[in-house]
Structures are given as C-alpha cells and as structure tokens.
Amino acid sequence: MALGRINAADFIARLLPQPHERDLGVGPAHHLLATVHTDIACPPSGHSIGWSDCYAAADMLLLPLKADLLLEPDDEPRPIPDHLTSEARERAEHTGRYAARIRREARRRGLR
Length: 112
Known about the structure:
Largest sheet: none
Helix content: 40-55%
Number of helices: 5
Mean pLDDT: 83
Oligomer: single chain
Shape: globular
Low-confidence stretches: none
Structural class: mainly alpha
Strand content: under 5%
Order of helices and strands: HHHHH
Number of domains: 1
Distance between the termini: 39 Å
C-alpha cells in the first residue's frame, strides 16, 4: 500500500502555548523578527537563498528561536550589518533589543 506524502510543516508548532505566546508577543512580533532576520541575511547584492524563502524559514520558528536569530550567544543583539540603512537599520536596532527581552523572558519561564 502506497503512502501519500506528508507535509512536515503541518506538525511544526509555530506558536508557544498560552499564556506564553500572548505575553512574549503576538502575530506582529513573529513578522517583525522574521523580517529583520531576513533583511540582515539577504543583502541587496544578492544571496544564494531568496528573500521569501529565508523569511519562510525564519517565520516557522517559535518566538524565542526567532529572537535567537538576532542575538549573540550572550543574548545581546548582533551588530547591524552595513547594508541596512535608514529605516531598516532603525528597525533592526529596535528589534534586536526586543529580541533580547523575548529571550530573557523565555529563559525565565523555562522555554527553549
């Protein structure tokens, strides 16, 4: 009997259990962290992975894991690369600080 293909994404939990998801950040937080990560990872000069694919890969992560994409191992925001300018740079700086708060609170709550 042949088995059909199963989409693994159907089994990946993108959201934390409540009240953690609500307390750490809701839908806009997911979009903001994934967008800033993708802006950093995909410079205008080009990248081997397209912007939308990079965004989709980041977007499927839990909120604390998305925050980790923007943080150094000591939970401080990563330096902002030079290819981000003006509004994108300001958004990245703000989001890095936000990611650090999410990570600290997630650790306090025992979340990964």
